[in-house]
Write a structure and sequence with these properties.
This is TIM barrel protein. The protein contains 14 helices and 8 strands. The chain is an alpha/beta fold and 340 residues long.
Length: 340
C-alpha cells in the first residue's frame, strides 16, 4: 500500500550543475519529474536571476509555469532569505523586515507555491506580523527547523508559542532531516582526512559522536591529542549537529507542511548512512503527514575537492529509497541523460 506522503526535490540539490551551466531549469524540473518527484522546491536567488534585488522578469516566471505544466509538476515552496543584517552596525528595522517577507509571499504566490520557507534565524514577531498577508495570498510561512536547533530548543518553542497565540494557520514548520543525524557522515570524515586530520583523531571524533559525547569535551580532547586546524574543525561539527528524536515532530504535525529530505550521501544500495530515513518515514506516517519530502542533497561540498559531484545520481538514489519506504511499486529511474 502506497503512502499519502509525496516525493519532491529541492532544486538546491542540483546547485553544482546549475552553477556550472550543466543543467538548465528545464533539466532540473524534467529530471525530478522523471524520478516521480513532482513536488518542486526552489531558492529564489538560485532559480531566478535578479531575485530579490531586481525582481524576476515576467518571461522567466512564464517559463517556470510552462515547465511546471509541461512536466506535470507541482510548485511546493519558495525558500526565501531575509537580509536583516544588510546594514553595517545595525539590524534592518522591524517594518522593513516585515515588508521583505511580504515581498517573498507575493513572489511565492506569483510562482503558484503553497509555502515559503523562512530561515530559522528570523524572529517570530516578524513572521506573525506578515501572517495576515500570507493568509490573503493563500500562502503558509514555514520556519525551517534546522540543526543545531530542534523542536525542544527554546528558540523553536518561542516560535511555536507565538504561532499558537497568533491564531493564524498561515504559520508553520519545515523540519530539516539533518537534525536527525544519528551517525557521523562518512563523506565528512573522508574530507577531514584529506585535509590532514590524523586517522586516530578522525576515528575518535566519529566514535565520540556515536557515543553522544558532549561537543565541548570532544573539542578539548582533540586539542589534548595534539589536534590543530582541520582536526579542531572536525570536532566542532559536533556543536552544530546531533541525533535529535524524530518522534518530537509528532507534537507539531498540525503545523508541519513540508519536509527537507536532507542527505549527505546515498550508497549504491540506496542507504543514507547517517540519517535514519526508515524511522523518519514511519514517524511522518504515524503523524498523518501528507505533504512532500523534498530531496536536499548537501554532500557535494564535502567531496568536490576530490571528485566531481554527481548530484543527479545522488538524488536518484534517494528517490529510490524514499519510494521503497513509502510503499511504491515503481522504481524511480531516469530516461533523459544530462549532457556533460
Amino acid at each position: 500500500m502506497s503512502s499519502a506522503i509525496k516525493r519532491g526535490v529541492s532544486l538546491y540539490s542540483y546547485q553544482n550543475e546549475t552553477f556550472q551551466g550543466k543543467m538548465s531549469l528545464e533539466d532540473c524540473i524534467r529530471t525530478s519529474a522523471e524520478l516521480g518527484a513532482r513536488g518542486i522546491e526552489i531558492i529564489g536567488e538560485q532559480t531566478f536571476w535578479g531575485w530579490p534585488e531586481y525582481g524576476a522578469a515576467d518571461a522567466d516566471v512564464d517559463n517556470w509555469h510552462r515547465l511546471i505544466a509541461q512536466y506535470d509538476c507541482v510548485p511546493v515552496s519558495h525558500d526565501f532569505m531575509l537580509d536583516y543584517k544588510r546594514y553595517k552596525g545595525r539590524e534592518m528595522p522591524f517594518e522593513e523586515q516585515v515588508a521583505s517577507v511580504r515581498n517573498d509571499i507575493d513572489f511565492g504566490a506569483r510562482l503558484g507555491m503553497k509555502y515559503i520557507r523562512a530561515l530559522v534565524s528570523i524572529a517570530p514577531e516578524v513572521l506573525v506580523a506578515a501572517a495576515p498577508h500570507a493568509e490573503e495570498r493563500g500562502i503558509k510561512i514555514l520556519i525551517e527547523v534546522h540543526a543545531p536547533l530542534h523542536f525542544d530548543h527554546p528558540w523553536i518553542i518561542r516560535h511555536a508559542e507565538a504561532f499558537e497565540k497568533s491564531g493564524s494557520d498561515a504559520l508553520g514548520f519545515l523540519p530539516d532531516m539533518g537534525m536527525f543525524l544519528f551517525a557521523f557522515p562518512p563523506v565528512w570524515k573522508e574530507r577531514f582526512l584529506r585535509l590532514g586530520v590524523p586517522q586516530a583523531i578522525a576515528d575518535y571524533v566519529v566514535k565520540a559522536y556515536e557515543d553522544r559525547v558532549l561537543s565541548e569535551y570532544v573539542i578539548l580532547n582533540v586539542q589534548q591529542m595534539g589536534g590543530t586546524g582541520p582536526a579542531i574543525a572536525m570536532a566542532e561539527t559536533l556543536r552544530h549537529n546531533a541525533a535529535f528524536e524524530p518522534k518530537r515532530m509528532l507534537d507539531h504535525m498540525s503545523r508541519i507542511h513540508n519536509i527537507h529530505g536532507k542527505f549527505y550521501q546515498m550508497t549504491e544500495d540506496y542507504v543514507e548512512p547517517s540519517i535514519p530515513y526508515d524511522e523518519i518515514v514511519k514517524v511522518l506516517q504515524q503523524g498523518g503527514f501528507q505533504g512532500y519530502i523534498c530531496s536536499e542533497y548537501e554532500g557535494n561540498r564535502w567531496i568536490e575537492d576530490a571528485e566531481e559531484p554527481n548530484s543527479v545520481e545522488q538524488v536518484r538514489r534517494q528517490q529510490v529509497m524514499l519510494a521503497r519506504l513509502l510503499g511504491e511499486t515503481e522504481v524511480p529511474s531516469l530516461k533523459t541523460p544530462i549532457a556533460a
